Amino acid sequence: MVNVLIDNVSHTYTKPVVTIALININLEFKHGGFYALLGPSGCGKTTLMKIIAGLLKPTKGKVLFDGIDVTEWSPRKRNVAMVFQFPVVYEMSVYDNIAFPLRNYGYGEETIRKKVHEIAELVGIKNILKIHASKLDPATRQKVAIARALVREPSVFLFDEPLSNLDPLSRMELRVKIKELQRAVKTTMIYVTHDQAEALTLADYVAVMNEGRVLQFDTPTNLYEHPRNTFVGFFIGNPGMNFMNCELVENGLGCSDIFYPLSTKEIETIRGYGNKFILGIRPEYVKVSKEQGLFKAKCVVREDLGAAVLLHLETSSGLSLKAKLPPFINVNEGEWLYIDFPREKIRIFTESGNLIF
Amino acid sequence: MKLNILIASIVLILFGLFWAIPLYALIIGSVKSLADAIESPLLDLPKELDMGAIVRAFNLLINAIINTAAVTIPASFVAVLLGSLAAFAIYLRSGPIADYVPPLIAITTYIPYQALIVPLISLIRQIETIFKLPLYDTLHGLFMVFLIYFTPMATLLMFIFMNNLPREIIEAALTDGMKPLVVYRRVALPLLSPGFVATLIFILIQMWNNFFIPLSMTRGYEKHVTLKTFGYVGEMGTIYNEMFAAAAISSLPPLLIFLFLGKYFVRGLLTFTGGGR
Amino acid sequence: MVNIIVKDLYKRFRKKEVLKGVSFEAQEGKITVLFGPVGAGKTTILRIIAGLEKPDKGKIFFGDIDVTNIPPQERNVGLVFQTFALYPHMSVYENIASPLKAMGLTQSEVDKRVKWVAELLRISNILEKRPAEISGGQRQRVAIARALVKDATVYLFDEPLTNLDYKIREAMRGELKKILKERGGTMIWATSDPQEALALGDNIVILYDGTVVAQGEIHEVYNKPNNTIVAKYFSYPTMNMLEGVVKSKGDVVVVDLGFTVMEIPQAKLSLEAESKVIVGIRPTSIGISLTNKRGIEGTVLITEVLGSETLIHVDIEGRRLVIYVPEIFRIQPGNKIWLLLDSNQIYLFDGLTGKLLHAPGVPHG
């Protein structure tokens, strides 16, 4: 269980074409914590994970475990355990799979039996120890892969999108299972995913990445309430934040045919950043009413999502935004509605997408 | 770890030498004068370069080379074309045809052609009589027999390449409304081109180096390069330099093909590993 | 436009019987969702409708015409594969034009249609590129464009969003509904995601273990699942199912759940005392209280943060309940939490057969 420090790591691939994968990454993963690397495909999260594991040597920068420079060390020497997208399970019984690394280390059979049973209990596969791996479904195979990685008592546990290949139901079950595991075992865990539900549920701190950079490394709540830039605001939340291009006008912001009033103090705060801004508001905070509001918009699409209803709204000038409301709301496609944004929930960003307040 | 690489390198070098030394002897032997070739040891460099042997061997062989090329190049192309069409037809069907026909075709390729030659020749004689069409000792007769012998192998090879295609792309083409032949032309063939070329090269080289079939289908040793070289060697006895020159020249065309088109061959083989989805 | 009728399909692959008598109808002009967990047989059914697979028994009708024995190239079906199946050696333009060329349309007609559907799917700017040069989301649009560009008798979609990044899927859902409606036509969309089904479908056919277990107008089926299987798979988040025993009190149904006893006056049923029932409660129907301590006491097990919503797993005397909160909400496991169950929102299922006994009235809010 170690402290992992990523010190000014950059990486550029040369084959098959020159691709810049990571730019100046500085992150610290404290020991025993659960961290997530979250971002869309191609953001560099898998590259970073391979560098932490030792599968890849960064073109620049260092990786330190507990202060020791391990950049040149192999994964085996670093004692990292990895769980991949495709369950890596050997063609043997579940018991033998989990016992495999222990046998490699030369432990006695009695010690092995104890450890295997302990881990199997933890992961919830104690009742299938005798079953041959080929008979298992993907979700269970993944559990076996996790158990085998856990039994090695690694310094760091790395997950590379382990749930992407499972069906939605198994994904939900296994997500819960991994969370329970994290509480029981106190290893440093780093989890790579493009699914925010996994990252926000499992991790204490999430690094949101895009195009080779870490945009924000923060708690899930902070990422949600105070996204440092528009990408984080868009990526976190289902659906992500609404954004509107605005100009500073007298007493507030003018966004197309909408006018949003601001206090003198607020105007003073943002004036220094130019006169073009981006106004952000999460769909779940958009107030929709039939009687009154700041401006009018038409409901062009109504998406029923079971637990909520998503309204796609459009103003007469073509400005579009989404509103998320409880189910059974009585709004139909084509209806005009009044919209408002509560003051404390709006976020203002610079024209280039950085948070002001 | 390093020891493994060392041992592997030594083994590879030894194998390389095993093939390279005779080749080396062949090449230097071709450019020696006769006296030089007889007197000096095999592996010695020539005292002086004598191109006479090569020129003479070339003159002797050129007609046979042209004949052989005229038959094998079209024949290999037609064989692979027919084979790919047959393979595609089998690929499109599921059920008994797809399951049983490929193994049957495979079995026919295992039969040594020597076993079939006598019935084949007598069959050809009969066709000649019935249709008044000369086949024995003709270019088109040889072409036909090459086709008969090599199309099954071509079919099998193309079938293997075809199975590496993602099935859904072919299905998408059918769903788009294309008739099977159009699917073959517009979708299957372009995607199979590395495999097609690889099979073509393979079949061409097989045909070129084949000795027995032209032996059975032509009179004398004059008209086909493999026969001619063989005959040459028999006649010449101890005229080593010309023998070597003849052997070198007759094996040149396949070598050239491999040199220039070899990368397509390798590309074709790579589709086995699923490279390039 | 015609109705697509699937009648009594049976299909076996090697030893496994995948379809055991599937029958349903896809109404003309509507989007019918074919719903079921992985392995239920959805892909097989779509392939049989497209003609890529032959059923062991059963028939497919396009309107009045029996197409069961007609080869795929003559069925005029638009199919979007899960793996997209784009032609790698052709440009995006040529990929989309392919079905039109096969039909023999003139170059100008082909050009007009391709440009129209590219505009619809917002891919007009990548028409010259090859599939290998564009992203997964863009490839998806090209695959859909290729299906929608022709005037097909039926459009079939085989879980096309499953292979995409979560955020892209989210963005495409709302957009797709607009696009599909604008295109018009009879459509069958296969998925195992209840939210996707609800977002896109007009009607739904629910498959489980090779047979149809429910079908009908999508919101009706969602609000009134006819058995526990439908309720479990076709709900978001998944409905809580609790076993209970009936303890009658006059006309009012009373159920003993162990940790609490519930009265369900809205259920106009007469149930035998001591009979077993399953109580279904949607995670969205449970209220939580942290300080007022009103309601049933439970202990927080874990919280799942989904983005703008949270699922709280609570343990009450050994039973597990999941509660939905429409915001980001973190609470430490081990904390106490109080739950409010609304009897107006309770579903009752038969304890032995799983059949629906009572469903809450849909509030017309």
The tally of beta strands of chain C, per DSSP, is 21
DSSP summary: helix tally of chain A: 10
Greatest interface by residues involved:
A-C, 48 and 48 residues
Q: Percent helix among the residues of chain A?
A: 25-40%
Task: Give me the secondary-structure category of chain A.
Answer: alpha+beta
> Can you tell me the CATH architecture of the largest domain in chain C?
3-Layer(aba) Sandwich
Kindly give the count of domains of chain C.
2
Average of pLDDT of chain C: 89
Shape designation of chain C: globular
Count of beta strands of chain A: 20
CA-based gyration radius of chain A: 24 Å
Please write the CATH class name of the largest domain in chain C: Alpha Beta
Protein architecture, described:
The complex is a heterotrimer of chains A (357), B (277) and C (365). With 357 residues, chain A is an alpha+beta fold. In chain A, 27% of the residues lie in helices and 33% in strands. In chain A, strands 6-7-8-3-9-10 form a 6-stranded mixed β-sheet, with helices on both faces. Chain A has a 5-stranded antiparallel β-sheet with strand order 13-12-11-14-20. The longest helix of chain A has 17 residues, at 168-184. Chain B has helices at residues 2-30, 34-39, 52-92, 96-110, 113-131, 139-163, 167-175, 180-209, 212-217, 225-236, 240-250, 252-270. Chain B has a single domain, classed as Orthogonal Bundle (MetI-like fold), CATH 1.10.3720. Chain B is globular and about 70 Å long. Chain C is an alpha+beta fold. Chain C folds into 2 domains: 4-224, Rossmann fold; 240-358, OB fold (Dihydrolipoamide Acetyltransferase, E2P), CATH 2.40.50.140. Chain C is built from 8 helices and 21 strands. In chain C, the strands form 4 sheets. In chain C, strands 6-7-8-3-9-10 form a 6-stranded mixed β-sheet, sandwiched between helices. In chain C, strands 13-12-11-14-20-21 form a 6-stranded antiparallel β-sheet. A 5-stranded antiparallel β-sheet of chain C has the order 15-19-16-17-18, with no helix packed on it. Chains in contact: A-C, B-C. Chains A and C meet through α6, α7, α8 and β16 of A and α5, α6 and β16 of C.
